[in-house]
Amino acid sequence: MAPPDYNYEHFNVTFPAQYVAQVEINRPKKLNAFFEPMWLNLGAIFRRLSHDPDVRVVILTAAGDRAFTAGLDVLAASEGDILAQNGASDIDGARKATMIRRHIQEFQDEISTIEKCEKPVIAVLHGVSYGLAIDMTLCCDIRICAKDTRFSVREVEIGLAADIGTLSRLPHANMPMSWVKDVCLTAREFNAEEALGVGFVSGVYDTKATALERALELGRVLASKSPVAVQSTKEVLNYSRDHTVADGLNYIKVWNASALQTKDVPDAMMASLQKRKATFSKL
């Protein structure tokens, strides 16, 4: 069971193994489509998990058999205040633009909490994985999926350019730019086999259940290691992805000037020499 402070509507937060948290999107009757309270709650959850000393790795998944998420709940969005005010004739263009810009920024910030989470995040996708599914899981550190997963960068299909992260993160995700532009410009579906072939996911499994089993196995491995080492590695990898090699070398030098001053290093070395499993303090 989740502690009381992890009770958020449309999300189940559980702890299936020591130091492993699982965040399950829980709106299956609507194909786990998002409306505003959901992305606000998602951000709140990941901010808490990032600093929770009892959490060392997070698994992101979704309830039901049909979808990870169908993306944005278009009906709810069309009835929201922002679009309603956008159609008002008594508000000038600059003021409409300011409202929309702030709204997009808020949405971006909440989804980006997944990437900013200090702990590694493993995404487990299945079924319909459209639009926001791509935005969210590009923020994750490891992506795996069930073989029934159907992906789509869907926004062009509804008349807009994706603005929550996909168009910014996919070009940095080490996939062929021709393929990136293909799926973003056409909004076409691509399956699990294609996603594995281009490197969007690192593993495909027969069912959602077996994919979850693999994620939990990975989670246990990561949770067993020094949290100083794991969280430092995530931080430096993300920094180096967005900077030059020289910048990355300088960053890890400065970072490790403090991070190496940990008891975890001699404890890990001694455990290796004695052929036993090391245990590490909370961080």
TrEMBL record:
Keywords: Acetylation, Fatty acid metabolism, Isomerase, Lipid metabolism, Peroxisome, Virulence
Subcellular compartments: Peroxisome
GO cellular component: mitochondrion; peroxisome
InterPro entries: ClpP/crotonase-like_dom_sf, Ech1-like, Enoyl-CoA_hydra/iso, Enoyl-CoA_hydra_C
Superkingdom in the source lineage: Eukaryota
Swiss-Prot/TrEMBL GO biological process terms: fatty acid metabolic process
Pathway annotation: Lipid metabolism; fatty acid beta-oxidation
GO molecular function: delta(3,5)-delta(2,4)-dienoyl-CoA isomerase activity
Pfam families: ECH_1
Mitochondrion is among the record's keywords: no
Record has Isomerase as a keyword: yes
PANTHER family linked to this entry: DELTA(3,5)-DELTA(2,4)-DIENOYL-COA ISOMERASE, MITOCHONDRIAL, ENOYL-COA HYDRATASE
Family: Belongs to the enoyl-CoA hydratase/isomerase family.
Protein name: Enoyl-CoA hydratase
Provenance organism: Oleoguttula mirabilis
